[in-house]
Specification:
mainly beta, Immunoglobulin-like, 4-stranded antiparallel β-sheet
Length: 308
């Protein structure tokens, strides 16, 4: 680990990649207004009886059948593609959304023409469909500092997206924070440690495995308050329970703002492992022509450690 003071509050967790079910809540508000009775003519007992009868009438009479009309929506293209700094091949997945009443089988899109251009070097790679809806590069190589453009034609529609592969940032190490709880219980949390480059905007995505099992949380940060500083930050989640002896693997992805926008809004929509979410919406996409999903050039590296 670099010998620099840690910064545990450097990054703001964005409160975020999926779409796509719609919930509607209708609230029925009731106002109960009571007139005051003359004390000389109404006894306390009469008032209580009247109050009980009035409430019973309201409860029995305020039943309402609400018919929710879930209209069918036109299917939308969902495109997911990445270019990494590690050797290829890289993949683009194409599918379509389905109606609310349908099952969760999202149809794949075959027969598309998919090209990724290295705009900086003036090179192009036409992807090959290796299975239904999944396309792979043949010769493309991700190089830091270069800009990549996705060009996709499917079912009479054109889609484009652009992303620049940032310079690498290394995940220095993974450590652990231990918090004692009443009753002798100790909670374990993974801590990420790395140096943020100074003078440029940086955006990060962290994912975690515990004993090979993916944790259902996405950690997305920018460096607005920690530019150029050494960062030590705890990955907190209600759904992760790390115990002594567990193998913890953390992957860092350093990406552009388009990736930060997608994953931060994805985290908000899905609740990021919490019980409540914001109003349903689609994560912000950098793909043109109304497509959902993302095309991102990212630098990725992984650290693994056993909790002790």
């Amino acid at each position: 680990m670099l010998n620099k003071p840690p910064c545990s509050d450097g990054y703001l967790l964005s409160p975020i990649t999926s779409n796509f079910s719609v919930m509607r809540k209708d609230a029925l508000h009731q106002n109960l207004t009571m007139r005051y009775f003359s004390r000389s003519r109404v006894t306390v007992r009469f008032f209580r009886v009247f109050h009980l009868l009035l409430l019973s009438t309201l409860v029995l009479g305020c039943k309402k059948v609400i018919d929710v009309n879930l209209n069918d929506a036109a299917p939308q293209f969902v495109i997911e593609g990445n270019v990494y700094s590690s050797p290829g091949p890289y993949y683009v997945q194409i599918s379509k959304t389905v109606n609310y009443s349908s099952n969760n089988q999202f149809p794949s899109v075959s027969g598309a023409r998919v090209v990724i251009r290295d705009v900086t070097a003036g090179l192009s790679d036409t992807l090959v469909e290796i299975q239904q809806g999944r396309y792979a590069t043949r010769s493309l190589t991700g190089v830091a500092g270069r800009t990549y453009q996705l060009q996709l034609f499917a079912e009479g529609k054109n889609f484009t997206a652009t992303s620049t592969l940032p310079e690498p940032v290394l995940l220095d190490s993974v450590s652990f924070e231990k918090i004692s709880r009443p009753g002798g219980k100790t909670d374990w949390y993974a801590v990420i440690n790395y140096q943020d480059p100074a003078g440029i905007s940086n955006y990060y995505l962290f994912t975690m495995l515990v004993n090979g099992r993916r944790i259902n949380n996405t950690f997305v940060y920018d460096d607005r308050f920690s530019d150029g500083r050494y960062v030590s930050r705890t990955l907190r989640t209600d759904s992760t329970y790390i115990n002594p002896g567990d193998s913890v693997t953390v992957t860092m992805q350093h990406m552009g703002k388009e990736g930060f926008d997608y994953y931060s809004t994805f985290s908000q929509v899905t609740g990021n492992g919490a019980l409540q979410t914001i109003s349903p919406a689609n994560p912000i996409s950098n793909i043109s022509n109304g497509a959902l999903g993302y095309f991102l050039a990212t630098h990725s590296n992984t650290r693994k450690r056993v909790a002790r």
